Amino acid sequence: MLLLSGPDLRPPAAAAQTATRVYCPLPEEGIWVDKAAKWQELTRLEVEATCVDDRVQVRARAFMRCSPRDCKWGWTEAELRPGGGVRVRLEGFFGTRDIKMRAFGDNIEADVLVVPHDPLQQEELTSHILKRARR
Questions:
Q1: What is the pLDDT of residues 17-64, one digit of tens each?
Q2: Which domains does the chain have, with CATH numbers?
Q3: pTM here?
Q4: Which of 9, 28, 73, 93 lies 20 to 30 Å from 116 when distance is taken between CA atoms?
Q5: Which of 42, 79, 43 is nearest to 60 (CA)?
Q6: Given this model, what pLDDT does residue 66 score?
Q7: What's the CA gap between 42 and 63, in Å, rounded?
């Protein structure tokens, strides 16, 4: 991955278009798993990135420990975070899960903010470390 930024001597309009360029693949791209996840924790994250016309398009989906099988959130458009990492907002029937992730080596840290639709329930923030899946 190559990231270019810094002072630019071109006119402001031209400099703004190319001030920061990110190239595929992203460090967060891949399949990430936590086989020891507890009830309603992340068991799997999948992140895909595609470069099209100098733009990075990212999508992600998540799996949570449920019963009898894991709950799955479908592919959702994600965004690059300033300073690195990826963010995806997954809308569900009972609430929203806002996941911020950043890869480091063969691990990814995922901070999950659960925002219930029920105003009587409190938001909950948890952090998880998942490992890159072996192929």
A1: 445 666 778 999 999 999 999 988 999 999 999 988 878 999 999 999
A2: 23-132 (2.40.128)
A3: 0.80
A4: 28
A5: 79
A6: 87
A7: 6
DSSP string, 94-107: SEEEEEEEEEETTE
Ramachandran area for residue 54 (φ above 0: left; ψ -120 to 50: alpha; else beta):
left
> What is the greatest pairwise CA distance in the chain?
59
Residue 7 pLDDT > 80? no
| Contacts of 18-22 spanning 24+ positions with Cβ under 8 A | 21/54, 22/56, 22/80
* CB contact burial 21-42 (16+ within 10 A = b; e otherwise): ebeeebbbbbebbbeebeeeeb
34, 40 Cβ separation under 8 angstroms: no
